[in-house]
Amino acid sequence: MQTKNLKMAQRFSAEKMQKLNLFETANFFTDIYCLEPGQEQKIHAHQGADKIYVVLEGTGRFHLGGEEADCSENEVVFAPAEVEHGVRNASPARLVLLVTMAPNPNFK
Amino acid sequence: MQTKNLKMAQRFSAEKMQKLNLFETANFFTDIYCLEPGQEQKIHAHQGADKIYVVLEGTGRFHLGGEEADCSENEVVFAPAEVEHGVRNASPARLVLLVTMAPNPNFK
Q1: Across-strand partners of A34?
Q2: Alpha carbons within 13 A on the beta-carbon side of B19
Q3: Which of A39, B32, B33, B41 could form a disulfide with A35 if both were Cys (CB 3.0 to 4.6 A apart)?
Q4: Nearest to A74 among B5, B81, B102 (CB)
Q5: CB B32 within 8 A of CB B6
Q6: Nearest-CA distance A76 → chain B (Å)
Q7: Per DSSP, what are the bridge partners of residue B23?
Q8: In this predicted model, what pLDDT tens digit does every residue of A30-80 receive, in sequence order?
Q9: A43 touches chain B (CB under 8 A)
Q10: d(C-alpha A99, C-alpha A107), whole Å
Q11: What's the rounded Cα separation, in Å, for the pair A42 and B106?
Q12: B1 vs A103: CB contact, 8 Å cut-off?
């Protein structure tokens, strides 16, 4: 059985936000993003692919289509295809996100 | 900004497992499954659609392609397309799962 652990998979780097893949196929990817205070995923958009962020730990400042909001543990943010989105750790604590995108734009 | 809360979205029923949708498009759905002790999602399979289970609370007895294993909070289980899968709450406590499927077989 293919299983992963959300705690074991986490890695942080002082250099930049870390993206750790848990599972992927052509249909989707599920990653963990680990952000030290001050780190960010720059605002961007995907053609034809939807994204879901689940805040596992900490608080993220999410940007979505011109709106900005802080979301904390247990909150889920939906970034539909074509809509500009990004997230910044504007808090003094670590931020851990579970990120799923469908379909998978990276899959060869 | 479209957000949901994993705690607020939970609903349990003595009658059967509850499925609560958080977000969906043709590309995916993300649901919360809430299982009282003894409740289950029967073994089934999906053509062409992958599923990810994240255990948010409790312990589930997962069946995947003939294997069986107990997975607890913070564990993630991958059920690839075509592979038979199901989950049963064989524990004495409530079980809460975050379930994402891609693409979405229910989307009209």
Answers
A1: A18, A96
A2: 10
A3: A39
A4: B5
A5: yes
A6: 5
A7: B30
A8: 999 999 999 999 999 999 999 999 999 999 999 999 999 999 999 999 999
A9: no
A10: 16
A11: 33
A12: no
